[in-house]
UniProtKB/TrEMBL annotation, chains A, B:
Keyword line: FAD, Flavoprotein, Oxidoreductase
Cofactor(s) required for function per UniProt: FAD
Record-given protein name: Lactate dehydrogenase
Domain of life assignment: Bacteria
Upper lineage: Bacteria, Pseudomonadati, Acidobacteriota, Holophagae, Holophagales
FAD-binding PCMH-type domain residues: 34-214
Pfam family, one: FAD_binding_4
Length: 470, 470
């Protein structure tokens, strides 16, 4: 059967667009962080019509399919399972459509287009797609994951900047919902079903995105905070006055900060030889307003100074104004520095912002009591309620192997976040096979039931994807 | 059967909460602009549990139900049909929950709470819900309608500011999706199904809303534009630099502007005795930044001056800086002034912003050719791609009665907007019985099919609402 399908796909897509050689398959079979499976073959259609033909052929043959964009996701949703019977539907060649409408302030793109290519084309118009990520994903993958990024505080996530989609259903039917309108209140907003659902309801082949003017100036500072509560009060105070230009509020615990400087001599430690305070906030302002109209660094310095004069300001230990690239470099080296310290168990948690300090304290107390050999090296997007509560330990210091500790720690920390603090086990990475068992543990039955009804309606044979949302 | 249901509901809700006297029913039977029916009775539950009990009782009795918030909608979706067999489920007493979390920058509210009551409570925290409307709707109604408002350009619509919902299904099952998180990427975002679907998939009894800091300063100007294209170029130019503080870009045609001054001597006509230009743009900036940091009126004046110096600026005829309340008063008197001129056929259309001028010209050409007795008095939220392309004529001047002309003109204008200009027949008002036949004419079958599947899943007996989305 596989041979017949290969023939059909080659006749539909051309010989080069169907890969079957095991060596060629490797890079499609393994995910960025999690996920490693075996593919039956890789199909690389170059047009929406070819995506539709590919899906119709697989559907007809009863072969399961996993859509894959740039394969940069962090939950294993874009790689095949271990069975070797799935087709990887790579969208990497579906990247030709790129129409910028500067007056509508939108871009119409193919699903396989890379974020970097989109931003390159937008630059000529002084525009950008404001979802700012470390990786270079495809637009379709960003939609299927509903990525957030570091400027969510100002711009929102992908969902907030998505006007329209083109989706191919499992049986090859094309849904054209390429809405270019900001206002279109005409019943169910169909595109919402495909945002953040890992491609299991349909393959995103096109999108209409709202884009924004590129800021022309920035101001950044690091602010030492004696406690998590102090960081939250700083957030509230700054946001009140600076909301229009407030683009990021990242927080790094002392435990996450110290390894950065230990492993990177080139990065300047603003605290020098002194012990850093409990938390360091990275505050970023950015604006489309010219410096002649608004002195952004001056404004940030003045607002931070004013906060220091308040009662809550007593818990602020330090203020360092700095260049954006220098301060962000510290933030961006956290993950990798922690890996040099030992075994890292990464988390992607969110809680209501007002409960972030209390949640972190509760997690630390739990660890100190039951896992004293574990260091809590938390950092994250506190402005958005997100925290990477990453845990670090050494095998030598642990009483049990990681294979036992990891699932146990995941369950303890997720239970705390989801059940006790109204939080989420996946703030921005999505579900995917990596989070499948947490999805099943924490998702209300009502949501699973509606997801199941949609899955049965849109993909009755269940051929799409490896994540189960029912 | 009706008597038995009344008894059951009185025992569940209390005698006062069930109205059956025809005089008491009147105000629940008639909509704000469209919709007039007859109710079997009105049930006024005061808690989510009572809403659930009411729906379970009606569901069990096979009686249809229409949910009603403040009954301020403009498409007749909150009033019963003419049959006299429907229960009006009024949420007006479900308005007690109102919890503001200033650090999370959210408000948790009951579905029946009025927008004015929410904003009153938020004021103490320097916060507001940024959906700014002429009416005073309930929050549940705003969600079911996905209202936009005059500051959509900066803040988005209700969907953009909604974090969580509590919904009661037709059979009385309560769906608790009161998410307080900005980031929670865990599969299908269930709340999206209830946004803009007129309450036919469930009754919204609670919500978690994202709220924003109240601006501390504003700057407004009227800008005369010789053409619609000139207005669009102005929009693009201002947006490029001013995006962070750009809150509104309204446009009023000369035909819509002149009646305002003709019927309101108290409003100052900036053009005096001169003929106004083809379009007048109302530009508003607002900011949370203090005047000491940003001179907003100075900035607006400087930017408008700079635009006048460009080639596109040659089509700018006038610039009037003015007080916000004076300039908005002109805009807010348009609808009512037109009604004094004759028969008004109101539209709520959107098209891609870049096609707004071309669409309006095409509509004018169509009218001049086939309906020369009709005046096109268009105005609207051009910054959001919205236009109220209102048509005015006098019975004396028309060759045929309005009852013939209205459906014909609707179809001609909607066909033009939807088919030729990728637009929408309902930018912000929703579907409802008033737009039912346009929904059926213009909605892709794929959308209707998914909506039908959701309806069968969530309300298999089909008891909720008067709008059909399948």
């Amino acid at each position: 059967m596989s041979g017949a399908l290969v023939q059909v796909l080659r006749s539909l897509l051309g010989d080069d667009a169907v890969l079957t050689d095991p060596e060629d398959l490797v890079r499609y079979e393994e995910g960025w962080r999690y996920g490693k499976g075996r593919a039956l073959l890789v199909a690389r259609p170059g047009t929406t019509a070819q995506v539709a033909a590919t899906l119709a052929a697989c559907h007809g043959a009863g072969v399961r399919v996993v859509p894959q964009g740039a394969n940069t996701g962090l939950v294993g949703a874009s790689t095949p399972d271990a069975g070797g019977g799935m087709v990887v539907l790579s969208l990497e060649r579906l990247n030709r459509r790129l129409e910028v409408d500067p007056i509508n302030r939108t871009a119409k793109v193919d699903g396989g287009l890379l974020l970097s290519a989109l931003n390159e084309a937008l630059k000529a118009h002084g525009l950008m797609f404001p979802i700012d990520l470390g990786a270079d994903p495809s637009i379709g993958g960003m939609i299927a994951t509903n990525t957030g990024g570091t400027r969510l505080l100002k711009y929102g996530d992908v969902r907030h900047n998505l006007l329209g989609v083109e989706v191919v259903q499992a049986d090859g039917t094309v849904l054209d919902a390429m809405n270019q309108l900001r206002k279109n209140n005409t019943g169910l907003d169909l595109k919402q079903l495909f945002v953040g659902t890992s491609g299991v309801l349909g393959v995103i082949t096109g999108a209409v995105l709202q884009v924004v003017p590129v800021p022309v100036q920035q101001a950044t500072a690091l602010v030492g905070c004696a406690s998590g509560e102090a960081a939250l009060l700083l957030l509230r105070s700054l946001e009140r006055d600076l909301a229009d230009v407030f683009t990021a509020f990242e927080v790094i615990s002392a435990q996450a900060l110290k390894p950065v400087f230990a492993h990177h001599e080139g990065l300047r430690n603003p605290y020098g030889a002194a012990e850093p305070p409990a938390y360091t906030a990275l505050v970023e302002l950015a604006s489309t307003l010219p410096a002649a109209a608004l002195d952004l660094p001056g404004l940030l310095e003045e607002r931070l100074g004013a906060f220091l004069e308040t009662e809550a300001g007593e818990a602020i230990t330090d203020v360092f104004m700095g260049r954006a690239e220098d301060l962000w470099a510290i933030r961006h080296h956290v993950s990798e520095s922690l890996r040099q310290e030992g075994k890292v168990l990464a988390f992607d948690i969110s809680v209501p912002r007002s409960r972030m300090a209390a949640f972190t304290e509760a997690a630390r107390a739990l660890l100190a009591s039951d896992y004293p050999f574990v260091r809590c090296c938390d950092f994250g997007h506190w402005g958005d309620g997100g925290t990477h509560l990453n845990l670090v330990w050494t095998e030598a210091g642990a009483p049990r192997p990681a294979s036992e500790l990891v699932p146990e720690l995941q369950q303890r920390i997720y239970d705390l976040a989801v059940k006790d603090f109204d939080g989420s086990y996946s703030a921005e990475h999505g579900v995917g096979p990596h989070n499948q068992r947490f999805y099943e543990a924490y998702t209300p039955l009502s949501v699973r039931s509606v997801s199941g009804a949609l899955k049965r309606h849109l993909d009755p044979e269940g051929i799409l994807g490896t994540t189960r949302l029912d």
